[in-house]
Amino acid sequence: MTTTGGPLPRPRGAWWREGAITAAAFALCLLGGVVQDDGSTLSPPPAAAYFIAVVSCAVLPVRHRAPLAAMAVTTACGLLVPPLGLLLSPLIVAPAVITAYSYSLAVHNERRAASAVLLISAALLVASTPLFGALSWKDASRVGAVAAFPLVAGVLGRSVHNRRAYLAAVEERAQRAEESRDSEARRRVAEERVRIARELHDLVAHQITLANAQATVAAHLFDARPEQTRKSLKELVETTGDALDDLRATVGLLRQSGDGAAPAEPAPGLSRLPTLVESFRRAGLEVSVHQEGTARPLPPGVDLTAYRIVQEALTNVTKHARTGSARVRLAWNRDRVTITVADDGGGARTAPTASTGPSASTAADRPPGYGLIGMRERATAVGGHLSAGRRPEGGFLVSTQLPLPSARDTTRRTDGATTIEGRMADGEAGGTP
Predict the structure, then answer these.
(1) 276 close to 310: Cβ distance less than 8 angstroms
(2) E strands within 281-384?
């Protein structure tokens, strides 16, 4: 990432380096001012040398804020060296070399940097070349060094500039990649949290609703029919045991890899629909299952979604509908399966479950939960659609359409379809609407 223009920012602790660089440049200027072309002994620097050193070095501390102005001043001082009677050497133009490096480092336009450095070198080359007289090899080497030093400084400045820009770009890409990974991780955690919450809701709502219905039956028949009460309590124990097993299996997914073995039981699907229907029948809700078309094996995600939607819809009937019956219909088509769960909602439940206690009186006053939201989310997640609402003739209807695999995939799993169809036939023995 390169700057768009202007001077580069300087760290607060770099002022001591600026002082050291300025002092070194001042010493080099004075040393260059006492060098003579004839090789005579060194003498104290003349006043012209002090003038060149003071003026050219005075602008060095501001070369980062105004690199072009500093380079212009130091170059002008280098051009004044021959008219002041001094020898133009690489030592006396040290401030011009430093400003050429700083300008090449600061400017973001490479063409401008190259043009400015070439202009400095050409100006110093012209100023250091004798106008009259022969040019000896010694003079030629000195003139070449005076012109080459700014060029070398400019190349070094551009190299450092490009290196810093490359490192900044790499750092920026790494930071963006880290932010992208963090965002993706947060998104996945949120999705997993919603999925686990939805799964726990379906398990708890189903099992606790059945347990509540069975406990209500036991309380209602405690004095009048002890045998029936004992049977309801036994079913309540089985229901709560199943609830604990399901919760243990679901919560086990949250364990770390070294926390122990998690249950290996497969996720439920439509093959367990007869068992699900039987659990509601034990709670006093008569559920009839009707199937149209030929059952086909479903992908694991769609199979689990179909099971959970039926489970949640029947749970809502048990909690809210105040009816003793519900109907489940599965219609298998070429590319989708339509599942509907309906109740008439027209009267109270049968005598064993129609309690007049507080549980029944407050059932209609419960706040709305997340059942319908969870069913819609499940259906949408697998590419399906779900609708729910009251029927004109009374009661409530939940209808969902879930996609089916292609016919080619179905032929590969004919045995699974036969098994599901056989189990569904056993579940329909309880009656059809």
Answers:
(1) yes
(2) 286-292, 325-332, 336-343
Q: Which residue type sits at 82?
A: P
By the 10 Å C-beta count (0-12 exposed, 13-18 middle, 19+ buried), 4 is classed as: exposed
Work out the number of other CB atoms within 10 angstroms of the CB of residue 71: 26
CB of 84 closer than 8 Å to CB of 48? yes
- Report yes or no: 342 and 335 within 8 Å, Cβ to Cβ: no
Phi, psi (degrees; rounded to nearest 5) at 267: -65, 145
pTM, rounded to two decimals? 0.44
* pLDDT in single tens digits along all 433 residues of the chain: 444 444 445 555 567 888 888 888 888 888 887 776 655 556 778 888 889 889 888 888 888 888 888 888 888 888 888 888 888 888 888 888 898 888 888 888 778 888 888 888 888 887 777 654 556 677 777 788 888 888 888 889 889 988 998 999 999 999 888 888 888 888 888 887 777 777 777 666 666 777 777 677 777 767 677 777 777 777 777 767 776 666 666 666 665 555 455 445 567 888 889 988 888 887 778 899 999 988 888 888 888 889 889 988 888 888 777 778 899 999 999 889 999 999 887 543 333 333 333 333 334 444 445 678 888 888 888 889 999 988 888 888 999 999 987 655 554 444 444 444 444 444 443 333 3
